Amino acid sequence: MGDRLPVPPALVYLLHQLKVNNIRYHLFGEIPGTEMAYVDLDRDYAANLKQQVLPDNWSMITPHFLANRALVQGQQDPIQQGEEPESIVIAYGDHHDKEIEHLQGICEQIRYLREQVASRLVYHKAHPPEPMEIHQLIKQLKGSDLS
């Protein structure tokens, strides 16, 4: 579960609570060039979350670099919004991503991820979650506080 990677200070308590509650996650870190931190939750747990109950400064997005770029630009996750894969790459990809041999592969990734639950929890490092918010999140991830 990433015990050997350096943990950004904004993630320490959240990762600790995930670990002690046996909630699986895969990756974590900071989104380069931003003040945002993320944790990629296991999809089985992420499926228990309801977007409307997340605090305002948290987002659930698809674990893909184009979804990160959209969030950084103040947009919602275009993969979960159902935009055409080619449109997503054109809007948020760089020159390299738009080359035909890369474009096709990225579009396939988008089509696959669109059928999955958004599982990347993102929040601003300047406003890390309060302990009570984290405990509420843990309940939701475990499926014990679903309404």
Summarize the entry for a quick read.
With 147 residues, this protein is an alpha+beta fold. It has helices at 12-20, 43-46, 65-72, 78-81, 85-92, 100-114, 131-142, and strands at 25-30, 36-41, 58-61, 120-124.
Describe this structure as you would to a colleague.
This protein is of the alpha+beta class and 147 residues long. Helix content is 41%, strand content 14%. The chain has 7 helices and 4 strands; from the N terminus they run αββαβααααβα. The chain has a 4-stranded antiparallel beta sheet. Helix 1 packs parallel to helix 7. It is globular, with a radius of gyration of 16 Å. The chain starts with 11 loop residues before the first helix and ends in a 5-residue tail after the last helix. The relative contact order is 0.21. The model has no long low-confidence stretch (mean pLDDT 88).
Estimated share of beta-strand residues: 5-15%
Radius of gyration: 16 Å
Number of helices: 7
The profile of the biggest β sheet is: 4 strands, antiparallel
Shape, per Cα inertia axes: globular
Q: Poorly predicted ranges (pLDDT <50, ≥5 residues)?
A: none
Report helical residue fraction: 40-55%
- Element order: H for helix, E for strand: HEEHEHHHHEH
Number of strands: 4
Summarize model confidence as the mean pLDDT.
Answer: 88
| Major sheet strand order | 1-2-4-3
